[in-house]
Design brief:
Helix content is 30%, strand content 34%. By secondary structure, it is α+β, with helices and mostly antiparallel strands.
């Protein structure tokens, strides 16, 4: 078995409201950052997967995203696996 590092980004679907992103975006002009807009806030997850090869590690990360790490109704995700 080898160790693989996965980096996962989970974001709200583009067509859904993002209250956290809106609150941060609305605060930007107060900080002199009025050139920043359309802020979206998600989460970044890193983890280590023990697997026989990269393809098996990717399959496990995909399974983890679908079962636990992302709410597929409200969020989208993408990941990269390095080994």
């Amino acid at each position: 078995m080898k160790s693989f590092r996965a980096s996962i980004d989970v974001m709200p679907h583009d067509n859904l409201l993002d209250p956290q992103g809106k609150a941060v975006g609305d605060s930007m002009p107060n900080l002199g950052l009025d050139m920043i807009s359309k802020v979206r806030i998600g989460k970044h997850i890193t983890l280590i997967v023990e697997a026989k090869d990269k393809k098996a590690a990717e399959a496990k990360v995909e399974e983890a995203c679908q079962k636990l790490l992302a709410n597929k109704v409200m969020e989208k995700y993408e990941f990269a696996v390095e080994g």
